[in-house]
Amino acid sequence: MRIKLEIMEEKTVILLMTTPPPAFSPWGVPARLPPLGLAYVAGALEKAGFQVQILDNYQLNTSIDFIKQEIERLCPEIVGVTCGSVTYQRCIEIAKAVKELRPSCKVVVGGWHPSYLPDTMLQHPEVDYAVMGEGERAIVELANHIAKGNNERATAKIPGVACRFKGKILKNPPKFISDLDDIPYPARHLLPMEIYDRQIGYLNAKPVDVMNITRGCPYRCNYCETNKLWGPKYRSFSPTRVVEELEYMIENFGSKGIYFIDDNFTINKKQTIALCHLMKERKLDLEWACDTRVDLLSRDLLVEMREAGCRTIFFGVQSGSPRILEKLNTCTTTEKTVEGFKLCREADIHIACSFMLGIPGETIADMETTYKFAKKLDPDWCTFYVYIACPNSNLYEEVLQKGLYDRMDNFLAFVKTAQFNYEQVVAIQQRFQRGFNTSPKTLLRRIRRDGFSSFLKSLL
């Protein structure tokens, strides 16, 4: 698919782009969803008066030659690139291509990997700045400095920005945004909305769009690094702001369903209920799904959510082994999971969940326990994932220190222990997934939920 970006007016031009995973990567592109994080950054830059374009290369996977053509045509003063650990090499390739064509253009990287390992980005001379943590305020302040002539001493003091200064790498800790309502809507109008799926299996409504309404996580799961990106303090947009954005989505993009892709949607019960009341008061004709924890539910809360349009909740159960749950430090138990699922069923809310396999210290017997637990829970949707250690989590540090891996892929560690290696866990994962999806109970549920014709079409 060819994407031609709009040529800008006589203002500072900023090109923002995502980066695709490498070919044959086990990560792949699991869903065609818009890059909300980059769209939030674009919205903040537009509000500050900059001319912005977005190239969602994670989905489009355009060539370096195409990117060069766009750089030559748009002549941006700043190029911002989102980088994850799995896309690290491609990000550096893009930075080199930009500098080859426009040496004066400033290359700014942001996202998960630069937030955790900014030194690995700035070791490349083609990268000028790394934004750590939330990007909206840091990138606007940085872009303003660059547009005004770039006083290096002042630029080197911007919170959340890492840069080279006087032969050293300076890393200024980010300041998290306390009032999220100050952030403009994501600049979805800059995205090629026609390329995204805009549907999910959890909802019957179409089209479905995604929203993120909270940031920060107070939990300390050992496999996760989220609270180091968004901070340990939970923050959220106000219910009024959320509903106004929902109305904007309905009016401008025809949204019929929403997937709230927040880790802990129901962490603030009072605020969640207030949002549900407001959604009902405004008579929003929407189905929606969300993610949360099994220990953040109550019967009255789920009733409110169901009446406001909630149809499915997704849970990261992770394991059926109490010993592994304790190692992961999830602060949940199998008993809490059973109770949470029971409450959802009583409220007529569908259940989706996921499990991880291949945790360091896990045994094959633990994995079998997880599979049996998944079958006992009997969720409407269930996915088994193979664990790959990601930078900046406690478990990642354990994997590196103990040498519990047999190869690295752009800072991602493929776990190997005395019990298993990555390929063996993949085989187990495929067996579990196939066994769950083809069980008579699961097939019958799908027919009842989706209808026989839809079920048959999905098989074909």
Automatic annotation (TrEMBL):
<dbReference type="InterPro" id="IPR023404">
    <property type="entry name" value="rSAM_horseshoe"/>
</dbReference>
<feature type="domain" description="Radical SAM core">
    <location>
        <begin position="203"/>
        <end position="437"/>
    </location>
</feature>
<protein>
    <submittedName>
        <fullName>Uncharacterized protein</fullName>
    </submittedName>
</protein>
<keyword id="KW-0411">Iron-sulfur</keyword>
<dbReference type="GO" id="GO:0031419">
    <property type="term" value="F:cobalamin binding"/>
</dbReference>
<dbReference type="InterPro" id="IPR034466">
    <property type="entry name" value="Methyltransferase_Class_B"/>
</dbReference>
<dbReference type="InterPro" id="IPR036724">
    <property type="entry name" value="Cobalamin-bd_sf"/>
</dbReference>
<feature type="domain" description="B12-binding">
    <location>
        <begin position="21"/>
        <end position="153"/>
    </location>
</feature>
<keyword id="KW-0949">S-adenosyl-L-methionine</keyword>
<keyword id="KW-0479">Metal-binding</keyword>
<keyword id="KW-0004">4Fe-4S</keyword>
<dbReference type="GO" id="GO:0003824">
    <property type="term" value="F:catalytic activity"/>
</dbReference>
<dbReference type="InterPro" id="IPR020612">
    <property type="entry name" value="Methylthiotransferase_CS"/>
</dbReference>
<keyword id="KW-0489">Methyltransferase</keyword>
<dbReference type="GO" id="GO:0051539">
    <property type="term" value="F:4 iron, 4 sulfur cluster binding"/>
</dbReference>
<dbReference type="Pfam" id="PF04055">
    <property type="entry name" value="Radical_SAM"/>
</dbReference>
<dbReference type="Pfam" id="PF02310">
    <property type="entry name" value="B12-binding"/>
</dbReference>
<dbReference type="InterPro" id="IPR058240">
    <property type="entry name" value="rSAM_sf"/>
</dbReference>
<dbReference type="GO" id="GO:0046872">
    <property type="term" value="F:metal ion binding"/>
</dbReference>
<dbReference type="InterPro" id="IPR006638">
    <property type="entry name" value="Elp3/MiaA/NifB-like_rSAM"/>
</dbReference>
<keyword id="KW-0408">Iron</keyword>
<keyword id="KW-0808">Transferase</keyword>
<dbReference type="InterPro" id="IPR007197">
    <property type="entry name" value="rSAM"/>
</dbReference>
<dbReference type="InterPro" id="IPR051198">
    <property type="entry name" value="BchE-like"/>
</dbReference>
<dbReference type="InterPro" id="IPR006158">
    <property type="entry name" value="Cobalamin-bd"/>
</dbReference>
